[in-house]
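TOKENISED FOLD:
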Amino acid sequence: MAAKCIEMSGLRRVILASVLPLGVALAPVWLAPAAQAGGVPLSERTISVVGTAEMQVAPTAARISFGARAEHKEAGDAMAEVSRRMAAILAELEAEGVAPADLRTRRIDVSPVWSQVRQNNGQRQITGFVASNMVELTVQDLERLGEMLDLVLRLGANDMGGLQFVHGDAAAQEDTLRVKAVEDAMRKARQLAEASGMGLGPARHINDGGGQGRPPVMRMEMARAAADVPVAPGEMTLSHSVTVSFDMFVPETEH
């Protein structure tokens, strides 16, 4: 029995002798990330910045939003009047050389009109219906923009939206702005890292915020008093933004 105990004790010593060095060797490796720079793991040495870029471009086309609106006691009558009015307007526009591809229906609505006075039971009655049909016209030739504005007004469009200028090559401009926005983010991140005594590593994460356009917009009600509406397209502002996270590192000191 004593011999067996001795054999077991010896076996335990062999096992412990084999395991302990492994545990001792692993401990420094496990603790190494937290031991860097006062307990801050290297994976947390990051900086996030927003890079932006913008440019001014001249618009190449314009979009006019207009339509017809009518109110009647019956919904069918309201829609019939709107349909007749819009059919006449669209036919005249096509006769003026407007391509069908430059005309797009944006919205067709029929909604009830409620009485302002409530009945004895607290309910309001439907007194009629309002129908509307909104269309978007793209004017490719900006020299004809004033003429087109005047035309839709004279043809009887009574539900006026807005005038918006657009750029036909916006996708290519956005590609250029996206690159410039990333370069701006890198410049900012490098400046902040150097100011804090750190070095800038590679990008860890990039979030594309997308592009935005700020074209001049004019409410068409402003144009009603003019016979041949004068329009100055001016310039559009295109912009793009990205959010980039970079790794940072402690620069090696020279001895």
Remarks:
- The mean pLDDT is 79.
- Residues 174 and 211 are 6 Å apart (CA to CA).
- The domain at 62-166 is CATH 3.30.70.2970 (Alpha-Beta Plaits).
